[in-house]
Amino acid sequence: MATRSEAHWYKSSYSGGSGTECVECAHTVGSTLVRDSKHTNGPVVAVPVHAWQAFIWALEGGKLEGREP
Fold it and tell me: For 1-13, what is each residue's pLDDT tens digit?
């Protein structure tokens, strides 16, 4: 698995354009890594591949829009 420094990070297409809510992602063999682009040395969340795919499918299908926490 790639380390956080070896990973190819890219800005999420779901990040806003204002520069205040940027999220970066990187894919590894078994997970997707997520971090705050303004704090690249800060915490990284590792999401298992199957959970990341389900999350993206839910976003694309509109199943997460308008949901309250």
Answer: 455 557 899 886 6
- Taking CA atoms, 57 is separated from 8, 40, 45, 64, in Å, by 22, 26, 19, 10
| Contact between residue 11 and residue 3 where contact means Cβ atoms under 8 Å apart | no
Residue with tokens 């205040």: 20
Query: pLDDT by residue (tens digit) across 29-43?
Result: 899 999 988 888 999
* Token pair in block for residue 5: 């420094």
For the chain, give every domain's residue range. 10-60
Using an 8 Å Cβ cutoff, are 55 and 47 in contact?
yes
The amino acid at 59: L
Say if CB 45 and CB 35 are below 8 A apart: yes
Q: Do 28 and 47 meet the contact criterion of CB atoms below 8 Å apart?
A: no
Structural contact between residues 44 and 4, judged by C-beta atoms closer than 8 angstroms: yes
